[in-house]
Amino acid sequence: MWPPNCAMRSQKMRFIYSRKHLGRIEKLHRQGDVSQETYEEALKENDIARHTVLEKEDNLEVVKTRVNPHEIQSIKAEIEQLQHDLIYYRELLARTELRMPFDGRIITMRLKDLENTYLEDDDLFAEVEDTRRVTIEIDIPESDIAVVAIGDTMRLKPLLAPDIIVKGEISQIYPTSFETDYGNIVKVLTVIENEDEALRSGMTGFAKINGKEMFLGEAFGRALLRFVQIEVWSWLP
Hints:
The protein has helices at 4-30, 36-66, 69-95, 216-235, and strands spanning 105-106, 128-129, 133-141, 153-158, 166-169, 172-173, 178-180, 183-193, 205-209.
């Protein structure tokens, strides 16, 4: 459907053409070159075109008087609100698509059991991991942490793969100690490249750290020295 202004312009063009056509027919009619019937038909068409233009003009005025500026502003505000709603619902729709935050693998089993279930906000859907680069935690007795420093080399043998020796460097030392069944410990970290994925999450093993160098007697006498410096000292008044 054409807008009122377009329809009005089109009808005016038809009226102009009809009026010019009538002028030519009138001239030919006076000369006797066309019949009375042809002249009356052209006169009728011009009259219809003129009345149609007048009718279109009246309709256009009615439309203009019906348009309320406040209604226009209200409709614009409603359209703007609908656009905001559209953006909001598109964001909600995008949240229904789950994507892994990094390249890796899903370690949660039986995901098909979650089919047709509803998850609340912050509910866990699946656990994923990237084991191409792993972080290893090593528990160091609290009494020995003084001889361990960042940058010290280490060797590790996992229990599940005793034929593998993993090498690395200490990259971080926890600032606090942790209480365990076998005494307080301090955790140290090392990051290992694991492209062949020989190491898996949760694996355990034994590690050796090349710490501070000392004489053999000093190394074996540290426990006795610590006993004297701390235990014996605590007995003294």
